[in-house]
Amino acid sequence: MKTVNSFNFAGKRALVRVDFNVPLNERFEITDDTRIKATIPTITKILNDGGSVILMSHLGRPKDGPTEKYSLKHLVNPLSVVFGRKVKFADDCIGQSAIDQAAELQAGEILLLENLRFYKEEEKGNVEFAEKLSKLGDVWVNDAFGTAHRAHASTAVVGQFFEDRVCGYVMLAEIENANKILESAERPFTAIMGGSKISDKILIIERLLDKVDNLIIGGGMTYTFSLAEGGKIGKSINEPDKVELAKSLLEKAEAKGVKIYMPLDNTCADNFSNDANRQIVNRGEIPDGWEGLDIGPESVKLFSEVIASSKTVLWNGPMGVFEFPNFAIGTNAIADAVVKATEENGAFSLIGGGDSASAVNNAGYGDRVSYVSTGGGALLEYMEGKVLPGVAALS
């Protein structure tokens, strides 16, 4: 696999797949630019070599072609500030106009293409569409790990039209940090799995049972485990058809000598709202008409103690409905514990993208853990042992 370190971009037009699927508010202002900042080293290397850059990305999930809400033109000014130069914009990602604009680029210049997903052919992995994209550059650079698990035209298929296929710094760092967790984790190794559904995390949990010493389970999936133990969960989110699966996971963990830590208590509410009435109850004792929305203080204490004694920590998924400030206490406390383990005990901590990354970044902890992944789903699939099309296309 060629990497940006080993390739000289002098005189080359680099067609770079980035993941600029960033959140925008109603004024089209970026509310979290983590994914953009992550690409600075790759783009800077290309420009410093004397190359030019054609950036391609998707934004959101447009259903019916070009949509103002999902136009990448909203990113032009912020990108110009980030890269300290005027970023040019092509109002289409294929076609003669885009080809001409790309051909006219001088060394050190950047061109941003319009949203790839304005064409349905992108997500279908259409070969003809990929070939049209390939006409814009001399070398293909994939730095979009967050979409590497999709066999889309720009993330995988386009690679076949380039002799030079190069792995960007974001992609490289994601793979290296995931491999560090999977292949050379220092012990004790603790995985923290949150989120709402066991079904979303079953494969990675099963794989981690062969690797971790401790498995902390939080978030909505804990209520399915409570059902499996015969507990009361009120109207909490759960998957009744996964109760037997939950039981089998607990049995597998015990057989492999993995310690499972579940919440000792829960903060529950009488309504799915930040302003709902709250009470703290023991696990499995949530009254009818109430639902668990966070872990309780005893759980925070227990989980924090386990994390503090760990030398490797993997965290994927929040402990509760962290979008509501009153039910973000558990998630924020886990973020605190992971930071302390990293800074005070020298633990290696990998935050597994998605909501966990948002929670850590929103708390201002992004630079106080070892690595924050930009790819939630992609990281999970990579750690499950699946081949990612976007990574395979670079080989």
Describe this protein with a few key phrases:
395 residues, alpha/beta, seven-stranded parallel β-sheet, six-stranded parallel β-sheet, 18 strands, 36% helix, 17% strand, EC 2.7.2.3, glycolysis, ATP-binding, nucleotide-binding
General description of the model:
By secondary structure, the chain is of the alpha/beta class. It contains 15 helices and 18 strands. The strands form 4 sheets. It has a 7-stranded parallel β-sheet with strand order 1-7-6-2-3-5-4, with helices on both faces. A 6-stranded parallel β-sheet has the order 11-9-8-16-17-18, with helices on both faces. Helix 9 packs across helix 10. The mean pLDDT is 94.
Beta fraction of the residues?
15-25%
- Count all strands and give the number: 18
Number of helices: 15
Biggest sheet character: 7 strands, parallel
Morphology call: elongated
Separation, N- and C-terminal Cα atoms: 5 Å
Strand order of the largest sheet: 1-7-6-2-3-5-4
Helix content: 25-40%
Structural classification: alpha/beta
What number is the mean pLDDT? 94
Taking all Cα atoms into account, the compactness measure Rg is 23 Å
State the low-pLDDT regions, or none.
none
Pfam families: PGK (PF00162)
Protein name: Phosphoglycerate kinase
Organism: Flectobacillus roseus
Family: Belongs to the phosphoglycerate kinase family.
